[in-house]
UniProtKB/TrEMBL annotation:
The keyword Signal does not apply. Residues 1-224 form the NR LBD domain. GO terms for biological process: response to lipid. It comes from the Eukaryota. Signal peptide: none annotated. One of its GO terms (molecular function) is hormone binding. InterPro entries: NHR-like_dom_sf, Nucl_hrmn_rcpt_lig-bd, Nuclear_hormone_rcpt_NR3, Nuclear_hrmn_rcpt. Keywords: DNA-binding, Metal-binding, Nucleus, Receptor, Transcription, Transcription regulation, Zinc, Zinc-finger. This is NR LBD domain-containing protein.
Length: 224
């Protein structure tokens, strides 16, 4: 069964999209607004990429209703796994949203994302201490989606999707002789969820109170 489990993970590794670069924005001279516009544009494109990716993993076997509800509640978690992974490799205390978009604490404070900075640093520290592997990252990302909402349409197939991911992770860890590691990774999911909630609130606040323009799809997902 370890072969089967690692088949799941190798498929996730194969379908993992190449990282996006941030697009520059020259529409404003206000540097903190510019950062926000670049960040929202990046998130919007990452969201489109994530929806495309979900169609290539076992997730696509779920009913459309369940796919939608899991994506609506888990997309930010899945994206933040990527941010945490990229930041884990970076030396300093920057958040690496893209290779060409790294924000430090001062920049996050200036853009109104101080709260999110704190939460993400906490998550990154936890993952950094564990020294995540690429296999674990892609599995966590899929798990973040799989566990994000109560299935409304077909609970059995969602359960099978979750069980398949759990089994794959267990098999992967036992092949590395890491007995408790799968459990430890699963125990980081609540912190990931909390961090994602804070991220969603932070972007909605910027949109409502600072009138930062946000793409329609991204706004719908933030508001879901």
């Amino acid at each position: 069964s370890s072969l089967l489990g690692n088949k799941v993970i190798s498929h996730l590794l194969l379908t993992e999209p190449a990282p996006l670069a941030a697009n520059q924005d020259d529409s404003t001279n206000d540097s903190s607004l510019r950062i926000l516009l670049i960040l929202c544009d990046l998130l919007n494109r990452e969201l489109l990429l994530l929806i495309g990716w979900a169609k290539q993993i076992p997730f696509s076997g779920l009913s459309l209703v369940d796919q939608m509800s899991l994506l609506q509640s888990g997309w930010m978690e899945a994206l933040l796994v990527g941010v945490a992974w990229r930041s884990q490799g970076a030396g300093g205390d920057e958040l690496v949203f893209a290779g060409n978009l790294c924000l430090d604490e001062a920049q996050c404070r200036a853009t109104g994302l101080a709260d999110l900075y704190e939460a993400l640093r906490h998550l990154i520290a936890k993952y950094r201490a564990m020294k995540l592997s690429p296999e674990e990252v892609v599995t966590l990302k899929a798990m973040a989606l799989a566990n994000s909402a109560d299935p409304v349409d077909c609970p059995d197939s969602v359960q099978r999707f979750q069980d398949g991911l759990h089994e794959a992770l267990q098999d992967y860890e036992s092949s590395r002789r890491e007995q408790h590691r799968a459990g430890r990774l699963l125990m980081t999911l609540p912190l990931l969820r909390q961090t994602a909630d804070r991220a969603v609130q932070a972007f909605l606040r910027l949109h409502r109170h600072r009138h930062v323009p946000i793409h329609k799809l991204l706004l719908e997902m933030l508001d879901a």
